[in-house]
Structure formats: structure tokens, C-alpha cells
């Protein structure tokens, strides 16, 4: 049996062993933006999963750009040293390609962690003033962000550049710019959160202007031999918001600036969006972007079944899949999926005796159901 999911491919000169990749997943376990031993454990475990590349969680380019006080950052030497320590560790145990997603949370910053309720921080809880393209609260009762001035925008753009340079020194293989899920760059793109009347608001061309300026600056500051990608929205899932046509135009503009790939997600701009959550619910947006722009495209959206992931790649809906919750639940998902699909995935040398070809009883795993792999 030949599996499309487990065929090699490349992104911007970066060779990948297969098309199973690991999405950035916030752990809310950093101290002043600095990664801890939790990140060594978390990313180390994922590094030996058999996936071809993984992204370090959404990382704030400024302290105020973090979602919570416990999110990772790349704005200090201490942040940089800790990230390098984590990357060096993962690289010592696995050939997986490692990148980091850099971003700014905009009006969604200054909040509690998910298990603490996700609400905005109040006075006395370490709250800070948030920034956004327009002074529009995220939802009724939330504090209003401060509308960004041109100097604010210049400072944030420079912070992206500085974070990209820190990431390069820390040793990442590639970089991803976060411009979806309702965070700052996404807030500029969406007409629901951007009501500006200057050259950065109004038309799609104007709303794309600042995110594209940020991408251009980051691409120029990051080593030319390493690729830069972006996570983008396929839709806001809300009336009057960002639409698939917009996603195509944005992806095309990014490609023209040297963007190596896009991963297409969506939602998060407003809290009352009606999102039809289900297996593969974001895939149609990735499919359209890929077909209409030709850019290398990743698909997300509750992908957990190996056959589902195989079909997405084999049918040309996306070039790769990016898994999040499925990997948290089953950090050996790629190895187990390879068994289901009759393919092979890499095992760490210490674990090779557990691979089906080395452990006769494991051949029975070839009869494992896809439901068991993706449960």
C-alpha cells in the first residue's frame, strides 16, 4: 500500500520526511516569556513522534503581545537562551524540523489561562493595556484596546523583526507568522475589528497593508536560506467578516513576497461566531487557497483519523496536515497512522525495538482500527 501522507516533500528548500506536521499549541507554562522544563518534556515528546516538522507555540514579540502572562516570548536574551536550550535538546534526540510561530495577541492579550477561565485580566491581576487597529472591545464588557498609532505600528513591526532575529540565533529551521485566530495581524485583516479610516483600513488592500509590511520586514531580517511561512484565516465564520475570497488574495500577496507556505485556519475574531466545528471543518478553505494560488498549503481542523489525513493529501486538498489536539492526545500518532496506512515512520533508536518490523507481536497493530488511532 502506497501512502501519500508518508511521502517526502519540501518547503522552500527544507526537506521533510512526510506530510504530518505538528501545529503550535499554547502551553501557558512560561515564566516572563521564558520556556521552562515543561517545554523540554512537551516538545521533546513530540519530537520523537515520527512527524516531519513541528512548531513551537504562539510566541509573543513583546511582553504586551502575549495572550497570557504565562505565554512564551522572544523579546529578551533570557527568552532566547531558553528557546535555544529547548531546540538544542529536541535536535539532539530527533531530526524533526523545528520552527516557531511569532505573533502579537492584540486585543486578545492580557487574559487568564484557559483553565483559569480565559477572561480578561482585571486591575490587581497584572492586566495591561492592549493594542489593536481600532478601539473595539473583543466582546461586550471587555476592556477597549488602544487604537494603534503609526509609531505603535512601527514599534510592533520592529519587535517582529527582533523576534525573528532571536529565533534565527536560537537555531530554528523555519519561522511562521501568526495572522489568524483574531490576534493582532488578523485584527488588521478583518473588517469586523478594523474600522480605521487611514491607509490601513477600509479596502482589502488597505487592511492587508500592515500584515504584509510585517511579513516583508521579517522575511528580510531572517536568514535567506531558511523559509518563512504564515498561518492565515480562511474565514471569520461571521457575517460581514473575512471571507474565502480574501484568504485567496492574502495568500497570493504573501506568496509574491516570498512566503514559503500558508496553513489555513480561521475564526477567533469575535466570540459569538457560529463555527461549524467537526472533523476537517477548515479543510475546504485550505483546498481553495492551494488551488487558486499554487502556494504550498497546510490543512488543519480537528484532523485525527489517518484515513482522513491521507485523503486530504492524496486528493490535493492540501500539501500537508497540521495536527494539534490529536498529537496531545496521542504523541505517537504519526507512527500509529503509518501502521494503518501501510507506511513507515521514523522511531528514535531507543524505541526501534517497538516498531512493528522489529517486534513480531506488533504486526497485529496492522489490524488496528482508525478509530483507535484517532480516539
Radius of gyration: 20 Å
Strand tally is 12
End-to-end Cα distance, whole Å, is 23 Å
Strand order of the largest sheet: 3-4-5-8-9-10-11-12
CATH superfamily: Aldolase class I
Order of helices and strands: EEEHEHEEEHEHHEHEHEHEHHH
Give helix % range: 25-40%
Question: How many structural domains does the protein architecture include?
Answer: 1
What is the CATH architecture assignment?
A: Alpha-Beta Barrel
Described by strand count, sense and barrel closure, the largest sheet is: 8 strands, parallel, barrel
Name the poorly predicted regions.
366-370
Q: What is the subunit arrangement here?
A: single chain
- Stated plainly, the CATH topology is called TIM Barrel
Strand content: 5-15%
- Return the average pLDDT rounded to an integer: 95
CATH classification, class level: Alpha Beta
- SS field, number of helical segments: 11
Structural class: alpha/beta
The shape is: globular
Notes on the protein architecture:
By secondary structure, the chain is of the alpha/beta class. It has one domain (9-374): Alpha-Beta Barrel (TIM Barrel), CATH 3.20.20.70. 33% of the residues lie in helices and 14% in strands. The chain has helices at 37-47, 77-93, 150-170, 184-189, 204-221, 244-256, 283-293, 306-314, 325-329, 333-340, 370-374; strands spanning 9-11, 14-16, 20-22, 53-60, 97-103, 131-132, 146-147, 174-179, 227-233, 261-265, 296-299, 320-323. An eight-stranded parallel beta barrel has the order 3-4-5-8-9-10-11-12, surrounded by seven helices. The protein has a two-stranded antiparallel ribbon with strand order 1-2. Helix 1 runs parallel beside helix 2 (77-93). The model is unreliable at 366-370 (pLDDT under 50).
Amino acid at each position: 500500500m502506497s501512502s501519500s501522507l508518508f511521502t517526502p516533500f519540501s518547503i522552500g528548500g527544507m526537506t521533510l520526511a512526510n506530510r504530518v506536521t505538528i501545529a503550535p499549541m499554547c502551553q501557558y507554562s512560561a515564566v516572563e516569556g521564558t520556556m521552562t522544563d515543561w517545554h523540554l518534556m512537551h516538545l521533546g515528546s513530540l519530537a520523537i513522534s515520527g512527524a516531519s516538522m513541528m512548531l513551537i507555540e504562539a510566541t509573543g514579540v513583546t511582553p504586551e503581545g502575549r495572550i497570557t502572562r504565562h505565554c512564551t516570548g522572544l523579546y529578551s536574551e533570557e527568552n532566547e537562551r531558553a528557546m535555544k536550550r529547548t531546540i538544542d535538546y529536541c535536535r539532539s534526540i530527533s531530526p524533526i524540523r523545528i520552527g516557531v510561530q511569532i505573533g502579537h495577541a492584540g486585543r486578545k492579550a492580557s487574559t487568564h489561562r484557559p483553565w483559569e477561565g480565559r477572561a480578561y485580566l482585571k486591575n490587581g491581576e497584572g492586566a495591561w493595556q492592549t493594542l489593536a487597529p481600532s478601539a473595539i472591545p473583543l466582546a461586550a464588557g471587555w476592556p477597549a484596546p488602544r487604537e494603534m498609532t503609526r509609531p505603535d505600528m512601527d514599534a510592533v513591526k520592529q519587535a517582529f523583526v527582533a523576534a525573528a532575529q532571536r529565533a534565527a540565533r536560537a537555531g530554528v529551521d523555519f519561522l511562521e507568522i501568526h495572522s489568524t485566530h483574531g490576534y493582532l495581524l488578523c485584527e488588521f485583516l478583518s473588517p469586523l475589528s478594523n474600522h480605521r479610516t487611514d491607509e490601513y483600513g477600509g479596502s482589502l488592500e488597505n487592511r492587508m497593508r500592515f500584515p504584509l509590511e510585517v511579513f516583508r520586514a521579517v522575511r528580510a531580517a531572517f536568514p535567506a536560506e531558511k523559509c518563512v511561512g504564515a498561518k492565515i484565516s480562511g474565514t471569520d465564520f461571521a457575517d460581514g467578516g473575512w471571507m474565502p475570497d480574501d484568504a485567496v488574495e492574502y495568500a497570493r500577496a504573501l506568496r509574491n513576497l516570498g512566503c514559503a507556505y500558508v496553513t489555513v485556519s480561521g475564526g477567533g475574531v469575535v466570540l459569538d461566531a457560529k463555527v461549524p466545528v467537526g472533523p476537517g471543518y477548515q479543510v475546504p478553505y485550505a483546498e481553495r487557497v492551494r488551488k487558486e494560488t499554487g502556494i504550498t498549503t497546510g490543512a488543519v481542523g480537528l484532523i485525527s483519523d489517518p484515513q482522513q489525513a491521507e485523503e486530504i493529501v492524496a486528493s490535493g486538498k492540501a500539501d500537508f496536515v497540521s495536527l494539534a489536539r490529536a498529537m496531545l492526545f496521542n504523541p505517537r500518532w504519526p507512527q500509529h497512522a503509518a501502521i494503518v496506512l501501510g507506511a513507515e515512520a521514523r522511531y528514535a533508536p531507543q524505541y526501534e525495538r517497538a516498531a512493528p518490523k522489529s517486534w513480531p507481536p506488533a504486526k497485529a497493530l496492522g489490524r488496528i482500527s482508525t478509530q483507535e488511532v484517532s480516539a
